Give the backbone structure.
Amino acid sequence: MLQLTPAPHISSGTNTKKIMYSVILALTPALIGSVYFFGWRALFLTILSVLSAEVTEYLFQKVTGRESRISNGSAVITGILLAFNISVNSPWWLPVAGSIFAIFVAKQVFGGLGYNIFNPALAGRAFLMASWPSLMTGRWIAPNSGTLSGLSSITLDGVTQATPLSLLKLHQGESVIQSLNSPGMLKALFFGNVGGCIGETSALLLLIGALYLFIKGYADWRISVGYIGSIFIFSGILYLFRVSPVNPLFHILAGGVMLGGLFMATDLVTSPVTRKGRWIFGFGGGIICVLIRLWGGYPEGVSYSILLMNMFVPLLDRMAPKVYGGLK
Amino acid sequence: MSRTFIDGIIKNNLILVLAIGLCPTLAVTTSAYNGLGMGLAATFVLIFSNLIISAFRNIIPDNLRIPIFIVIIATFVTVVDYTLKAYVPFLSVQLGVFVPLIVVNCGILGRAEGFAYDHSPGYALMDGLGIGLGFTIILFVMGTIREILGQGIWLKIPGMFSGFKVFGEAFTNSSVILMILPPGGFLTIALLMGIFNLFRRK
Amino acid sequence: MDNLFLIFLSAFLVNNIILMRFLGLCPFFGVSSRMETAVPMGMSVIFVMTLSTIITWFLYQFVLVPLDLIYLRTVVFILVIASLVQFLELFFKKQIPALYSAMGIFLPLITTNCAILGVAFLNIDNNFGLLSSLVFAISSGLGFLLAITLIGSIRERLENAPIPDSLKGLPISFIAAALMGLAFLGFSGFMGLSL
Amino acid sequence: MKLLTFRGGVYLKGRKGLSKSSPIQPIELPEFVYLPLSQHTGSPSKPIIKKKDEVKVGEKIAESGGKLSVPLHSPVNGVYKGTQLYPHPLGGMSIAMKIHVDPEKTEPWERVKREVDSLSTDEIVEIIKECGIVGMGGAAFPTFFKLRIPPDKKIKDLIINGVECEPYLTSDYRLMMEKSDDIFKGIDIIRRVLKPDRVWIATESNKMDAADNMRESCASYPWASIVVLPTKYPQGSEKQLISAITGREVPEGGLPFDAGAYVQNVGTALAIYEAVNFGKPLYERVVTVTGSVRNPSNFLVPIGTPFDYLIEKAGGVVGKEGKIINGGPMMGIAQVRREAPVIKGSTGILIQNEKEVLKGEVGPCIRCASCVDVCPINLLPTEIYKVVELNDYERAEKMGVLSCIECGNCSYVCPAGIPLTQQFKVAKNEIQKRRK
């Protein structure tokens, strides 16, 4: 029997699964780093989050009688990213609640993979922020500085320590600001040896993973460069005019800028499809992030800035580039 | 006549079926008590405007009917507004601008135009009761869901009753605050409408 | 609260009239399934809102208050807005047909748009002066336009999404609005402005 | 130096190695040949002989059937068996003339000797028409018609297309290796008709030896230059080739001459040379038979030879037969019947065995925008696909679906396996239908 599918008769061999698993692989260095900095509980919460995401996806597809697509790995990414966005000191049910919201409300009801408007992990995080603000912002602990002592215990103790960003928000005088601007702080931020959410602290490990995705072409560097670059430029200008007390390097290394700019803004489904749109998307997100950090009610603006830009994606997608030869 | 009443609750349910009067439904349902208060206030206006319009339907000139309806409705709204301010000031503050806004609830004008204007006062009364009750039930249910999930308590009446702790103390202390924030309102009505559609299809 | 910039920020973003204040939801969900209708609706709202704010503000300050007729404000305002809309409709039809064809079908819908009346009330409740009232009205209108444009584009994108049947149409739009509101929560506390 | 290329496109594995080194070889004649009356863009030809008539190689057997149409010539000596419905390699069944080949009679076509230099352009174009010449790169557009440029249009760039960007195919490559001198003589004739400012012979970087060979022949033609473009698909598409070389774009709905350019395939240049100089009609062509066959080859094939006969000549299928494709893997058409005949536009026959055939699993679009990046026309395939799915052809048209050249890039890169190109073909047909 001759087969009759339409042209083209060959394919590039890339498929959705491959892309998703590459993203998971790219997140692995940061995951390993989180265990190193915060102990096994980081891994425990991540696994819990991933499992909740997968189970929610499975149940939804089962109940609505859809083809099960849980093996494509997209829910795993959501689970990991959500866990990366909470403190290691969170109660176990926090990532569970976040993942269920992320998959159910932000993704599956819209039709599942490919149809969600908002990045599920970020929607999940915003849900947690709105619902349990004290758990999301008041429970930071210091990293174990790589002594590996954290590896043996799954406990909630640990030295509580404000994150660099919350110190900035509290504005506790000149000496604090000076320490935030110090090279030692920037180094700690770059390597990840600071308090913060599970997966966001190490700029280095996140960059390694993202670089892999950029090379593979599974994430568009334009978004990341637009996002992180605009934060750098905008906060730099504000620093020059003494509006922002901290230097732009601090701004791009602290908090979730790397995690958000490299992994969440670049989420394929919730970012624009055109190159121009992607530049605008990244750039706009960066500006909003700095605005929230310096003038908003929260110490961190990354997740909201990306969620807000997610809303504009359908509009940005309308900016079609000029068609070859022009249109009549 | 009882048919009119039942239809008012289900078949013509303002929110679930006609999707009118959404603003107060979402805005004030942060607690069951507020929802109930809003529902009853609207029901009061519905019943009396329906009755009056129906009673005078033969002398209201056709081309002037809409402004006349509006004046009648606005009058009852003003009555409700001032009554609430006088007797339940706290509720009045909670409902805020949404009490005077009952006047633009398209549901009420819609019933005046679509039902009361060409039915006898008896039917108009039943319609007002049914529609009002259907509206009140939804507001109460929405308020209940949002209050229990969002605050961990149920039926709190400010100054009188501190509410039932439905899921126990631990839940009350870490309730889902989002549910009493604006997005929680959208989520709750989406959920109710989804469930309603599920049953309507069957 | 007379800082005009703060009034603008509050009305436009922090307390967005749709997503945070829940005013004007009927037209918001009613005509937002396509961008072609959503955008003109938003424009019409800005226009009517600004005009009605000017008229109701003057009426209130210079007629109702001096005559001690404050309790008549509901009746008076709604009549004013209804006749304003009627008048605009006739005026556009005769004088500016282009504008009529753009806004025409949306004007009658605006009478029962509680955002218009709501803004008139809120101006009084907040004791706004004329300028503040105007800024409040225009920025509320802009907030409406922003929200309806966004939801319009989002709903268009959802046109062929395999959404469960019982959630198609309004419910999924509510959920989209909920998530938009969630994102807008990022503005809460902006420059000290709270919900 | 500015890199000469076009926007979008994909880098494909060429797979030309399979048949690259196989020289063009004539084949034994089949028992029957089948000549569809519609082998070119335009109205079908009309038979002018009667059943049981004896025919000779090169004899005109059908005349031009309209303004945009060319005659058909017998590729063999034999007996005309009348017309019948027969599989058409572009899909479906169509009326074809069947000729029983007489293996005894081996005399070739009657050569005429012409004094080319004394011919007027009109005479040249008439000869090209009478010899039934059409574009041989696949489109099969009647060449005489294409050569008639409106007097107000000036051809600045004449581009000879030796790009052959489809993977697997090597027929143009072999022609450039073996017939470069004759191709240049053909180009010279085209040049005399069009009087362009510049002449470019374009090929891709994966055919360096062909480029070198052409360059040698080029030495005696100072007006021509060889351009080697970076290998990228679909460079051989007229529009892309024009913008790669000249930087100009053909306006939507326009023709190449609107951009001051004219593109002709190397094979057509050769056919023009043979027609004008010796009166040889287009009755045979080079066809690459490749893919999962034992001996991938480049054959000189009489038009009308059934595919299965050629596959047999190439050693038969390796593995279990999966697909037989008329053309290359990107734009070729999968055949329903293996006995479909070679027509004037057949560049190659690609055989895929069962394992090579794509599974065709379709998932939801994840908006990766790969299709946007590779579209040579700068369309947004993922967005257009959405509105086509909603049957909103009006919006699809506004988004430029009619400009789609059906190169297949979007489908090729789609990780979700969505048949984008196919949907656009359907949408284009639907829009054309509604216009009528």
In short: The first helix of chain C runs from residue 4 to 14. The two ends of chain C are 14 Å apart (CA to CA). Chain C has a mean pLDDT of 89.
